[in-house]
Amino acid sequence: MTGYGRGVADQGDVRATVDVRAVNHRFLDLKLRGGPVPPALEDAIGARVRTAIERGSVVVSLHLVRAGAGAAIRIDREAAGRAHRQLAELATQLAMHGPDLALVLAQPGVVTTDDVLDDDSGAASAVLAALDGALAQLDAMRVAEGAALAVELHARLDELTATRAQVAELSGELPALVKRRLIERIKRLTAESGIDDARLAQEVVFHADRADITEELVRLASHLEQARRLVAGPGAIGRRLDFLVQEIGRELNTIGAKSMTAEISTAIVGAKAALEKVREQVQNVE
User: Fold this and answer.
1) b/e map of 248-281 (b: 16 or more CB within 10 Å)?
2) Residue 187 CB: number of other CB atoms within 10 A?
3) Which of 39, 197, 249, 263 is most deeply packed, by most CB within 10 A?
4) 121-145 mean pLDDT
């Protein structure tokens, strides 16, 4: 799920601003930006993010400002030289003008400050407080998005449930259909006027059993009901929903393979289209 949050917190002479951006991702992928971070603080940030977010590509950006004269600015001349050479080579390849000073200074690592995080400073406390505020804003956005997704998922699950009921009704006609088709086939293949009723009954039972989709319909109903409860319930449900979507698809494929009527085949095609919409939306659910 996507979202954005910003938190600001003051601790002593330090003001920390933390931005958190999250986009869809199958697993949790956390990146920190904003300069070197002490291991203890990095671990604390990771723990807070993992508590709030189960999966997603998350970028946490840190920015510190100290009161007073501010931190001393330093220019890494070696880094500036490397950046200038690389940019100049690229400009030559592209037949463009060489880089100016502003572009060189904008490259990562060229301009640094003495204002760094350390384990003993109040900056770490300010960062964590700002992070909490950013995560709260992010969560509010994700809750709103989740509510909209729930409406869409319920609509698609209703569609699948209606199709399942339609297929169940159509499947009740299968034994009679099998018998009729067998009689027509026997009449075409033999010149005999009579048909052995006992033998015909055996063949009807055999072919009807092969075409029976009762078990698939029962499992399909169970999967749909579980999905509905997940969508209506709390907590992170994305991975469980993803699993149920796979199982629903498996049952639809089996029913389609056993289908003996155009009506059932058409219904299954429509159900697969609805399921694909569910699959797309599930990728947006935590």
Assistant:
1) bbebbebbbebbbeeebeebbeebbebbeebbeb
2) 12
3) 249
4) 89
